[in-house]
Specification:
With 294 residues, this protein is an alpha/beta fold. It has eleven helices and nine strands. The strands form two sheets. Strands 1-4-3-2-5-6 form a six-stranded parallel sheet, sandwiched between helices. The chain has a three-stranded antiparallel sheet with strand order 7-8-9, covered by helices on one side. The protein binds pantoate.
Length: 294
Amino acid sequence: MKVVDNIAALRAAREHMGGSVGLVPTMGALHAGHIALVKQARAENEHVVASIFVNPSQFAQNEDLSKYPRDIPRDLAMLEAAGVDVVFTPTPDLIYPPNYQTWIEVETVSQGLEGDRRPGHFRGVATVVAKLFNLVQPQRAYFGQKDAQQVAVIKRMVRDLNFPLAIRVYPTVREADGLAMSSRNVYLSAEQRTAASVIRRALVSASKAYEAGERTAEDIRVVISEVIASEAVAELDYVSIVDAETLNVVEAITERPLLVSLVVKMGSTRLLDNMLLPAHLNTLEGLTQTLGGG
Ligand code: PAF
């Protein structure tokens, strides 16, 4: 596995890759969710490139940029074991040199949900992902369903800017008790970590209510709020029920697929999770008509 930290070396490595290239962009602090993306990329492409870059532009002033977990040697060992060919590890100055001025705003899809809570977040994500697409020129790029709005933003950007690649979305990988894997789980105290399984329980309860014929979004929100409220250390930040293709808020539930997303706060840590309903849909990947990508 080659590790490159500059653009000339990345381009030189890319030039030697015949056949298809799969890109797995990451911010490091890797877990089994990232490795599942790498394995999928490995299975579908001749070459796999991963990036490790804690992207400053997607963190707001009050967020955890400086304390975001970093462990490059461990990450590299995991990527090598999973079969990555090239890892790109740029510095912030390489991605955003002095007087950097060009940003990508994906307008509507970036609004609501995380976009409202984290102003500028998706502008930073879209910009760095577009830069990685230009640098690596992959045929496929791999993202996790856990960050559903991020997936929607990237798919829309790919469609709107005519990037010649496919976005592949992998189902959320979970711990044994159902907690979605996330690099930020390391922030949880032992008590918070135990309590965090309530998030998945709330989503499963919502799915059961849906299957039992519950047909208003408000009733599903109440089911989720009640389950979360059963854990004293968990505080529901928001629960949102939107049309999975348009991301428009829905109130009356129809046959169209829904995306139920929530954020639960455990102390200062925000934990995201989501579920598509009906639950067998699993990822947003097939729902590309409106979101783009396709
Ligand atoms: O999901 C992430 O880890 C990041 O948002 C991404 C896609 C690597 C962009 O920095």
